[in-house]
Amino acid sequence: MAGKKQFDIASALDAAMIQFWRAGYADTSVDDLSRATGLNRSSIYSSLGDKDTLFLRCLERYATRYGDAYDAALSCAAGRPLAAVRAFFDVTLERIADPGLPDGCLVAQTVMATPVLSASVAERAREAIGFQHARLRAALKAGRLHDEAADSLATHLAAVNQSLAVMSRAGTSAERLRAVVDVALDAPARALGARD
Asked: Which InterPro entries match (predicted)?
């Protein structure tokens, strides 16, 4: 179509995701999104949706990107459950250490902002944060822990993982974050009998 500007939707979504991640949903305006993506307001609305729709797309993009990385990390859980849990935390620590990304976790900060979110965005954020627990629980069960132990440990490890994101946003050093992971790994090591 002559006269229409073409743009890469994936790049625009990544730019919008980073903007939401950096400033949060409530503190990101459509003008902020326009500056971040390089698109005018009209193009944002026509190509990416209103603010809620765009945010949901960004949240889904984030959850898929890091969810896939967590799944890959946990894929060795049947044979090496402790190594799998360590690899799970490595995904978070590597994301935190990436200078090209904002500190923290888009999902965690979205859950904390639930009072100012629409019902659909708040529900999607709660689902996304629940996926971490479900992933860890499935991995621990694959490592031959019984249901109750797997569930309790998954709750603990997911909470530690979210605390890493919050601590990183507060400026905690990579060394201290790694120390938190080392302490957190004691619980599954005991439960698993340090088999691996």
From this structure: Homeodomain-like_sf, HTH_TetR, Tet_transcr_reg_TetR-rel_C_sf, TetR_C
